Amino acid sequence: MTDTDKAGNLLAQIPKGEGKAPPPVHLWNPDFCGDIDMRIARDGTWYYMGTPIGRKPMVKLFSTIIRRDGDKYVLVTPVEMVGIQVDDAPFVAVSLQVEGAGEAQVLRFITNVEDEVVAGSEHPLRVELDALTEEPAPYLLVRTNLEALVHRNVFYQLVELAVVREIDGKAWLGVWSSGEFFPIGPQPD
């Protein structure tokens, strides 16, 4: 079976969703059929056989059947599972809506595939620092084991919203959402 056949067959096997929730990929355990030449770049662009997938509805459809098993990303249907490559995170948080202020503040993120995610205990924000450059890389948990890289412009919005809070005797900059405090980084001296 060629990669083209695998991708075409995969599309035909995706169950039609009745609501907005993604299909229950965590319940599906079909045979692994190998890797296909599909990649999600760090900027959220999906590629098939080296060519960007230009049809947004197709990208959105594929985004509903992605799952992470350990360090491997797969697209899964009830009858087939194929491996794909993800450069960083499968989604990118591209916009932010802020409601309220202070500890009552709610941060609603929109991803590149139009998922809406409210940061909170079920969808935490975290920031990794690059060991060499110390550049921050912020992430938001979108679904089980799947994160969105927070776009640089959105991260700047978070920094503008940041407040100082003491954690374990150290001052941290961070943001509130849904009653949770998410540290962005230590407060500069």
Automatic annotation (TrEMBL):
Domain DUF1285: 23-89, 90-184
Domain of life assignment: Bacteria
InterPro entries: DUF1285 (IPR010707), DUF1285_beta_roll_sf (IPR023361), DUF1285_C (IPR048342), DUF1285_N (IPR048341)
Protein name as catalogued: Proteophosphoglycan
Organism: Pseudomonas guineae
